[in-house]
Amino acid sequence: MNDVERWVVLVRGTDRPGTLTALTSVFSTRGVSFESLSTGAVDGDGDVGMITVTFRTSARRQQLLVRTVERLSMIRSVEVRSADDPTVRAAGIVRMADRAGFTPLDAADVSWSGDASAGQPVLLEGSLADVTAVVAQARAQGAAMTAIVIAGI
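The structure assignment produced for this chain is given below.
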């Protein structure tokens, strides 16, 4: 597939057994694997939870996936964006090995805090694309631990 793109989908679904299984089944039966999947807190009413998925596929297959997920009875809403869309916000954590220094790329538009040379994790916030680039930079420089969480779209 030459037209493969990276996508982020935010699904709000009822907090009941089978919601996550139904969602993963839609992707599985259509031959699409997750790059990542995370669940968020259930809303204050205790009824609706959030599931965030990143995956790669064509625009056409992405549209089919979204339409199918929207039809599931336990799904309340579905939002999808290209992973390169600057409205897709992410947080990242980088912990360098052996107190190595680390400063995010100048070209990346991220907010950050922490001092890796003092053994502290570096916390990042920005677009998913920029946070992903900074985490890749840290991995290339020998990071002992990294993580990325999608904060919202």
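Interim note for the steering committee: The mean pLDDT is 91. The helical segments are 19-29, 59-70, 128-140.
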